[in-house]
Amino acid sequence: MLLKSHSQKFILLLGLFLILAAAMCASIVYGYARTNWTIAFKAFTDFNGSNEHIIITSVRLPRALIAALVGASLAMAGAIMQALTKNPLASPGVFGINAGAGFFVVAAVSIFHVSSLQAFTWLSFLGAAAAALTVYFIGSMGREGLTPVKLTLAGAAMAALFSSLTQGLLVVNEAALDQVLFWLAGSIQGRKLESLIAVLPYVTAAFIICGFLAPKINVLTMGEDVAKGLGQKTGTVKIFAAIAVIFLAGGAVSISGPISFVGIVIPHLARYFVGNDHRWILPYSAVLGGILLTVSDIAARYVVMPEEVPVGVMTALIGTPFFIYIARKGFDRA
């Protein structure tokens, strides 16, 4: 743990908020269409209907807001999952939750021709819930019960299954392939403010749930028996934690597609700064996740300009070495 006192943690958190705000401002200003800080400022204070002003207010502003929200959601979901499962590799991507949400959306598009944003949101929640329950059930089978290794293997298996089913649907339906291919790679390019508004109530509810659960998660991480001995209703805590993860991961996937590694990398970075207190880990994860995805999205615009790389590719480049390090470190201890 790098920071010892509450004042140090608060000051750094405030600094990270400022970095996130700066990254969002940079996301609004920089891109293929050449704009600058003066043009961006006038787009909000003296809008004149020019192409630059329309791009800033209608394209880049929603994109910056979505990047921050999706990054925060995935990072918080990963932090909760790692705490409850005691698994350093736990995240919506590794446990197949993102893949499950993505499969349900693709199935609805290719089979039932669904196009409603609200429908996408609920389908993502349903897919995330189905994947989470399946992984938990499979990981609990056997005499040893639930273990980090079994959970990881079950999650990897379900992620592979849902991904294969998704690819099968897209092979059969080429029209659906055109609609969702870039989204499946994890992208926030072209996302509208309506997509954010559709999931905002559910993600906000999940943030509130996480705030109430943080001290209870601290107790639960001490062990099931200890938590029960202190009077905690562990089953209720786990149910609400699962609801929060489903809302966070499902909401993120419905907007941006299945973006990997944010939920793995960020909680470990948060714990490096503030230790194992989830009253600090969760807000740190939210802000750091927003920074990571916003900065990754800016970088994705410049790698092969004038084309764009999906932001999921950028997070994979960052997260893969970290994943390998954590996998070796975590399983060497198991």
Throw out a few tags for this protein:
ABC_transptr_permease_BtuC, ABC transporter involved in vitamin B12 uptake, BtuC, 13 helices, ABC_BtuC-like, membrane, globular, Iron ABC transporter permease, transport, mainly alpha, 334 residues
Descriptive report:
The structure is a single chain. The chain contains 13 helices and no strands. Helix 2 packs across helix 3 and helix 5 crosses helix 10. The chain starts with 5 loop residues before the first helix and ends with a helix. It comes from Metabacillus sediminis. This is Iron ABC transporter permease. InterPro entries: ABC_BtuC-like, ABC_transptr_permease_BtuC.
Shape descriptor reads globular
- The total of beta strands comes to 0
Task: Classify the helix fraction into a percent range.
Answer: over 70%
Order of helices and strands: HHHHHHHHHHHHH
| pLDDT < 50 stretches | none
Total of DSSP H or I helical runs spanning 4+ residues: 13
What's the average pLDDT? 88
Layout of strands and helices, then pairs:
Elements lengths: L5 H24 L7 H9 L5 H35 L11 H16 L4 H24 L7 H25 L1 H11 L8 H28 L3 H6 L4 H23 L5 H13 L3 H23 L10 H23 L1
Summarize the model shown.
The protein is an all-alpha fold.
